[in-house]
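Trying the structure run again after the queue cleared.
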Amino acid sequence: MVFGVFDLIHEGHRHFLREAKKFGRQLIAVAASDASVIKLKGFIPVHPLSDRVNNLEAEMLADKILKGDDDLGSWRILKNHTPDVIALGYDQKNLAESLKGFIAKNKLQIKLVSIGPHVDKSLHSSTLRKKI
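Done. Tokens:
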């Protein structure tokens, strides 16, 4: 399972999804709700959630795409879909800490792995957003 906004899909996202898929039989991508993006990042995504999901589906890199929880920290998504592995991007430090706490508190058997950046850290959605 992976988590992300997945706005303005670029080669860094593709790299992340391809690498994450190597850790299991099926990859579930969880796209953050518009409300969560605003709370977490302080901006409205360029594409609404429905478009971001459609764009992810068009990439055909994830086997299943789900909408993330609206209420941050509830982790209902993990209660309904318990993955063996959660792959995290190199820039998802806060998410990693939140997940570690939830996994430990609930005694879940979920392994966290980290995926490095594609080429370097210059390929990032925030960089693309500035060009729009």
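The chain has a mean pLDDT of 92. Worth checking whether this holds up in the mutant runs.
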